[in-house]
Design goal:
430 residues; alpha/beta; 4-stranded mixed beta sheet; 11 helices; Aspartokinase
């Protein structure tokens, strides 16, 4: 049997009972003949509590010390889990991100992995041990400072280790049974997806699906690491994310590949804000200057829409979306660039939501776009921005309209389950 990397989120190790339950699952994989590497998140809401504590001490903590503080949560989890495994009669060794060889750049709070050199992990496995690694963290290549990887960092750690160790699969354990056609907290009749391609999962993740983060899926696709998303609270099969559909055996037809659905799912995101640059001179170079100012502030944007220029004034408006947490930085960066660009004013709106329909079959099935907008219209949802790709349609609307819009679109495309409602074992989705 080969090497397996397992990742457990905060809801899976939220308390002592959860840690002991996870330890039993890990030991079971070891007994089945696998070499096992485990990546853990901080317990429950530990990271949020540490962030709140830091803000009470210092509203603007230094990046280096902030990272040093936040990595404590995962170190607690890994040590407790190693203790629980030893209690079950198996040897386990815990490693921080730096000890595991996770090398990053020097950007604190949202570092990117440059390389993974898992020498100590290999040694632990060769000695017959289970290796427990603290997720979400690494060490900078130049200054050797502790860094954190930002949101979804533990998932990315797990996939990066799986790639470096040439693992058979990376199992991501969470508090739902897999990837669903919509967030089961919003759509009770959401269906679990048996298999989804890397491309469709990337679109869902980029569109707000929280079960897997975009960076994690991107890394898995680059190194062709199959991901199995499943619940640590049940023994059910989860969702496979890979380049090729798995082969299943049936009594009637023998072996056949799992068929890809026309529509993979409906995702939503209420964590973004919209910035509108009003009265931009409609001439070459203006848009470039706006987005150069945003890029120089190291901000990522999502959707971009430019209105038709008013013939009488020669001015236009440009709107874009970005994370709410970056809203203030974006406004500050554009205000500084205002004299050079020459726009009239800025509008900021953080009460928006994004709804996205994703599916590789969309490009070969006429009528999908019409059905999508008809469903939104029937639900009384007004659309503010539209963005499309070959396998995705996204719209921005009022945040209050998002739950109803998601349910309406999910039903319109026949995605509602006729059987049991989706089970959410925890409360966070991570």
């Amino acid at each position: 049997m080969g090497l397996v990397v397992q990742k457990y989120g905060g809801s899976s190790v939220a308390d002592a009972e959860g840690i002991k339950r996870v330890a039993k699952r890990i030991v079971e994989a070891k007994k089945n003949g696998h070499q096992v590497v485990v990546v853990v998140s901080a317990m429950g809401d530990t990271t949020d509590e540490l962030i709140d504590l830091a803000e009470q001490v210092s509203p603007m903590p230094a990046g280096r010390e902030f990272d040093m503080l936040l990595t404590a949560g995962e170190r607690i989890s890994m040590a407790l889990l190693a203790m629980a495994i030893k209690k079950l009669g198996h040897e386990a060794q815990s490693f921080t991100g730096s000890q595991a060889g996770v090398i990053t750049d020097s950007v604190h709070n949202k570092a990117r992995i440059i390389d993974v050199t898992p020498g100590r992990i290999r040694t632990a496995l060769d000695e017959g041990n289970i290796a427990i690694v603290a997720g979400f963290q690494g060490v900078s290549q130049d200054k050797k400072d502790i860094t954190t990887l930002g949101r979804g960092g533990s998932d990315t750690t797990a996939v990066a280790l799986a790639a470096a160790l040439d693992a058979e699969v990376c199992e991501i354990y969470t508090d739902v049974d897999g990837v669903f056609t919509a967030d089961p907290r919003v759509v009770k009749k959401a269906q679990k997806i048996d298999w989804i391609s890397f491309e469709d999962m990337l679109e869902l993740a980029a569109s707000g699906s929280k079960v897997l983060l975009h960076r994690c899926v991107e890394y898995a696709r680059r190194y062709n690491i199959p991901i199995h998303v499943r619940s640590s609270f049940s023994g059910l099969q989860g969702t496979w994310v890979s380049s090729e559909p798995p082969v299943r055996k049936t009594q009637q037809q023998g072996e056949q590949k799992v068929e890809q659905a026309i529509i993979s799912g409906v995702a939503h995101d209420t964590s973004e804000a919209k910035v509108t640059v009003v009265g931009v001179p409609d001439k070459p170079g203006e848009a470039a200057a706006i987005f150069r100012a945003i890029a120089d502030a190291e901000l990522n944007i999502d959707m971009v829409v430019q209105n038709v220029s008013a013939a009488s004034t020669g001015l236009t408006d440009i709107s874009f979306t970005l994370p709410k947490t970056d809203g203030r930085k974006a406004i500050d960066a554009l205000e500084k660039a205002k004299p050079a660009i020459g726009f009239d004013s800025l509008r900021y709106d953080d009460q928006i939501g994004k709804i996205s329909l994703v599916g590789a079959g969309m490009k070969t099935n006429p009528g999908v776009t019409a059905s999508f907008f008809e469903a939104l219209s029937d639900a009384g949802v007004n659309i503010e921005l539209i963005s499309t790709s070959e396998i995705r349609i996204s719209v921005v609307t009022r945040a209050d309209d998002v739950p109803g819009a998601v349910r309406a679109v999910h039903t319109a495309f026949g995605l509602d389950s006729e059987s049991d409602e989706a089970v959410v074992y925890g409360g966070t989705g991570r």
